[in-house]
Structures are given as C-alpha cells and as structure tokens.
Specification:
The protein has 323 residues and is α/β, with parallel strands linked by helices. The protein folds into two domains: 169 residues, Bordetella uptake gene, domain 1 (D-Maltodextrin-Binding Protein, domain 2); 97 residues, Periplasmic binding protein-like II (D-Maltodextrin-Binding Protein, domain 2). The chain contains twelve helices and eleven strands. The strands form two sheets. Strands 2-1-3-10-4-11 form a six-stranded mixed sheet. A five-stranded mixed sheet has the order 7-6-8-5-9, sandwiched between helices. Strand 1, helix 2 and strand 2 form a beta-alpha-beta unit.
C-alpha cells in the first residue's frame, strides 16, 4: 500500500509539473520582452537587431525592446543577462565571443559565464584579410614573402577586437610568420586606419571590409568563409589556399539566462525561427554578410563548446589576458 501511495504521489507531482509548465507557457509573455545588445547602437548589426525585434514583437504579441548595454567587449551586457531572472523576459543577441573568447581572456568577467546560455544560432559571420595597396601585397604569397623580408621592421595589422586578433594570430601561426599587432576598439577605427595606410593589413568582419575591397581601396587577400563570397569572387578562401584549419568565422547567437523553462524557450525559439526566415531579416543578414543557420538550443550549445575549444587554444598560445 505504501508503495502504491509513493507511485501515486510521484505521478501526481509529474502531472502537476507538466500542467504548471504548460500554464506558464500559455501565460507568457504578458509584458514587454527585453532583447539586450551588448554593443553601441549603429554599425553593421543594427539592421539585423531591429528586424528581429520587430518580427518577434509581431509573433509574440508583446513589444520586444532592444536594450543597448555596451562596454567591456560585451561583458556588461552579458552580465546583465546572465544575472537576470530566467523567466523569458530577458534575451541577448550577440556575436559568440562573449561566450567563447571572453571567459578565457578576462581575469574578471563580472559574472558567472555558466549562467549565460546560447539558445539559437542565427547565423555565422566571416572575415576578410586585406592589405593597403602601398604594401604591394596582392596575394597570400606576397603576404608571406614580405613578412619574412621585413623581420627588422615587421608588417603591422589592425586588431579590431578578439575575433579579428585571434583569427589573425591563428593564421600567422599556420604561416609561421610574425606581424605587429595594433589594437583598436572595434572594426570602424581599425578600418579607418587601414584605409589611411597607418597599418599594413587587417582581418576584419566582411560587413565592414567588403565595400572597400570592391572599390579597390584595399586589396582583398583571402576570406575565412567556407566558399568564396559572391560579391568579391576574385578573393580566394583560406581553404582554397591550403589552410582549412584557420577558422576565423564566428556565430551570431541568441542567449538567455540559464534556466528558462522549456515551454517558454520552445515558444520563443519558434517565433525566432519564423522571424529569421522573414524577407526583411534575411535581407538584413545578407547585407551584413551573415550566413543563415537557424538551429536551436542543442546545436547552439554544441557549436559554442566547439568554438570555445578552438579559441582557447589560440588564447593560451598568445597568452592574451585582460584585467
């Protein structure tokens, strides 16, 4: 008889949890939703962020408000999300470095990175390696030859942030050459000095680099994409050039505080998946040269773990730390 009551109580508890979760999902959302962007407004991602917020608002029936929280290379926004209640009212759209690079380079993130979880992969972004015309570099062979020839005064490269810096260091390690890093706060100032010839080369996200390669103001040397970029088909991929292990691509993902109830997560992801397939969003992604992915939590977390291993190896090699 005691065993019967135990089984009965377990079944009642399971039924109550299922009913409770279902009720939570039905009631959610009943107030505005916040989507954090851990960078300043404007720039390449702006159109994508706004288009996604608009599409989610239409599908969820509540306003999805973009909340810009820039600073500390994404750590301020990430910490704000990680420390928010996991109730489905706080999300973040960000490049992957907040989860796959920052935990390895910052001595103090300001929050527990385990409390932040990727829930959806929107797409992947690639980068273009380009040099100023004054260098005389027109291809990767020139790039390597001049780097070897100028050991007394190494070639310089603009580093717009962790993705560009670590991607470049990964390439330099493969090529067995050295260059002088010149750090910048983001792709815009890095691009400005590359155009002005203050630095020789740079590996910068395609959205910021593309128009300048097309106009020949800089010389495109190679891309980190899997296939050639249609807008600049003359620029080979690193894979084409025999360096398939240089993976300078990075994910654009949606994040949430760990612990969002599965029914809410499923409901949000369904709305997000429909949104990112809208013409308005696909055009925004294409304009930012983001290759659509559209994968849910399991794949998002698996890809983030794989990316973290990739970046951790290069972080350890270059001994990159930030106080």
């Amino acid at each position: 008889m005691k065993m019967f009551f135990k089984i009965h109580l377990v079944c009642m508890a399971a039924t109550w949890l299922a009913w409770s979760s279902s009720t939570v999902a039905q009631d959610w959302p009943n107030k505005p939703i916040r989507m954090v962007a851990p960078q300043p407004p404007g720039g390449g991602p702006e159109r994508t962020i706004r288009a996604i917020a608009k599409g989610l608002t239409e599908r969820l029936g509540q306003s999805v408000v973009v909340d810009y929280k820039p600073g500390a290379d994404g750590n301020i926004g990430s910490g704000n999300v990680a420390n928010s209640p996991p109730d489905g009212y706080t999300w973040m759209l960000s490049a992957e470095h907040v989860a796959t690079i920052n935990p390895f380079i910052y001595k103090n993130l300001g929050y527990d990175p385990q409390k932040l979880v990727a829930t959806y992969l929107v797409g992947s972004l690639n980068q273009i390696l380009a040099c100023h015309p004054k260098t005389g570099i027109t291809n990767l062979a020139d790039f390597v030859r001049l780097a070897h020839a100028n050991k007394a005064k190494p070639l310089s490269y603009a580093s717009p942030g962790p993705n560009g810096y670590l991607g470049m260091e990964m390439l330099l390690d493969e090529l067995k050459i050295d260059m002088t890093q010149v750090p910048y706060r983001g792709p815009a100032p890095a691009m400005q000095d590359l155009l002005g010839g203050q630095v020789d080369c740079a590996l910068i996200v395609t959205a910021a680099m593309l128009e300048h390669v097309r106009s020949k103001r800089v010389v495109g040397i190679a891309t980190t994409s899997q296939t050639r970029i249609p807008a600049v088909p003359e620029v080979p991929t690193l894979r084409d050039l025999g360096f398939p292990n240089v993976e300078g691509n990075f994910w654009l993902a949606m994040y949430a505080p760990r612990g969002v109830p599965k029914p809410i997560l499923d409901k949000f992801n369904k709305a997000l998946d429909e949104t990112v397939r809208d013409v308005e969003v696909t055009e925004a992604l294409a304009a930012n040269n983001t290759i659509f992915s559209g994968t849910g939590p399991d794949m998002a977390q698996a890809e983030m773990a794989k990316a973290a291993l990739k970046w951790e190896r290069i972080v350890r090699r270059v001994k990159l730390t930030v106080d």
